[in-house]
Design goal:
Shape: globular
GO molecular function: 2 iron, 2 sulfur cluster binding; metal ion binding; oxidoreductase activity
Distance between the termini: 39 Å
Organism: Paroceanicella profunda
CATH superfamily of the largest domain: Beta-grasp domain
Number of domains: 2
Radius of gyration: 15 Å
Keywords: 2Fe-2S, Iron, Iron-sulfur, Metal-binding, Oxidoreductase
Pfam families: Fer2 (PF00111), Fer2_2 (PF01799)
InterPro entries: 2Fe-2S-bd, 2Fe-2S-bd_dom_sf, 2Fe-2S_ferredoxin-like_sf, 2Fe-2S_ferredoxin-type, 2Fe2S_fd_BS, Beta-grasp_dom_sf, Diverse_Oxidoreductases
Structural class: alpha+beta
Length: about 150
């Protein structure tokens, strides 16, 4: 059994401690907003917050993060009104949309620690997450908008 704190609630899961957090979230807790992209920590589709930091869920073993605070896209703002989410819509960021939950989670973590990041800071931070549709300019504009309006 592994005890996790996910989106503000404590959950106990009968799962091997070696299981990646990604699969615990998707398969056991049915929180499918966190996406599987590569499984190797190379794409960012599985980005969640671990104690407020953007992390790749595919690279975190559940046994190593017991007692830590995990936030998924579902827990970022249950109403979908986080400043980053609103800016994403306003800037029409998504094309296919597959990477967007990971992009939003990374952007939200950036803004929580740096409320007015420079364009270079945004580009540097967001370089950890890939977008196959190449909507990078819209992603940057959305983060700048969220910083202004947030």
């Amino acid at each position: 059994m592994v005890n996790l704190n996910v989106n503000g609630r404590s959950v106990e899961i009968d799962i091997s401690p070696d299981t990646p957090l990604l699969w615990a979230l998707r398969d056991e807790l049915k929180l499918t907003g966190t996406r599987y992209g590569c499984g190797a920590g190379m794409c960012g589709a599985c980005t969640v917050h671990l104690n407020g930091e953007a992390m790749f869920a595919c690279q975190l073993r559940v046994g190593d993060i017991e007692g830590d605070t995990i936030t998924t896209i579902e827990g970022l703002s249950p109403e979908g009104d986080h400043p980053v989410q609103k800016a994403w819509i306003a800037e029409q960021v998504p094309q296919c949309g597959y990477c967007q939950s990971g992009q939003i989670m990374r952007a939200a973590a950036l803004l929580s620690r740096s409320p007015q990041p420079s364009r270079d800071e945004i580009v540097d931070e967001m370089s950890a997450n890939l977008c196959r549709c190449a909507t990078y300019s819209r992603i940057i504009r959305a983060i700048e908008r969220a910083a202004q309006e947030g």
